[in-house]
Write a structure and sequence with these properties.
TIM Barrel, 285 residues, four-stranded antiparallel beta sheet, single chain, six-stranded parallel beta sheet, alpha/beta
Amino acid sequence: MPALASDMKKSTGVRELIIKALDEDIGPGDVTAQSVLAGNEKGNARAVAKSALVVAGLEVFSEVFDYVEGPIEVNALCNDGDCIGPGDVIARISGNLKGILMAERVALNFIQRMSGIATLTSAFVDKVAGTGVRILDTRKTTPGLRILEKYAVKIGGGVNHRFGLYGGAMIKENHIAAAGGISEAVTRVKNQIPPTLKIEVEVKNLSEVKEALCAGVDIVMLDNMDVAEMIEAVQVIGTQALVEASGNVSLDNVREIAETGVDFISVGSLTHSAPAADISLLVDV
């Protein structure tokens, strides 16, 4: 299981996310459940996939039920990373029916979001199969949900880029503009960071590629280049640095980009535009 899984499981931040989400949804009380149910009824429910998807977020889904009226037991019938189809049961839930209904939407919101990201990531990974290229996520995540969304990317077969600004030096166009050029920006970074941290520079053309290589960077990011430019850039870079392609990547063009010889392709849409997976929670009468 990805390393983020253990971090997520023990994370106080994840628990706080769940509690905040429940508080946001329930507020001072679930008007409907409190009116329809006495509170001591027991029942069973099941989470069912309504379309093909890659499951992600089972632990978070299950934990939501720990913070409502119980006792409630959640039994997962699959694992994160499993590919399932329409009608497949993801988990069975049993216990206090009022609590189940109060937790339903929040639990589904988490697993639908995470499974949607894992499903989209898996589609990108499948598209580049056999090329050796790795699909990376970005920092374009939902504020506060980064640990969950990056975990979902790994479940889908992708690779996490830096988790935050502290995870490595990435010199982008605004840094370059502020410093007065690539060479100056790289020099300033090298004078400040430990040698164990990698330096990546975003470039827009071959002239900037050559300047970045002369500055001694570890990774060159080809930003919004067309395929012909990427091929030429990869040839120029050779083994001097790793190469990442970024910008306007889709399922339609990711294979062509991979075949240019880059090492990584970063895809912001994995987290900022993944559609939620279609999952329902049904009470068994």
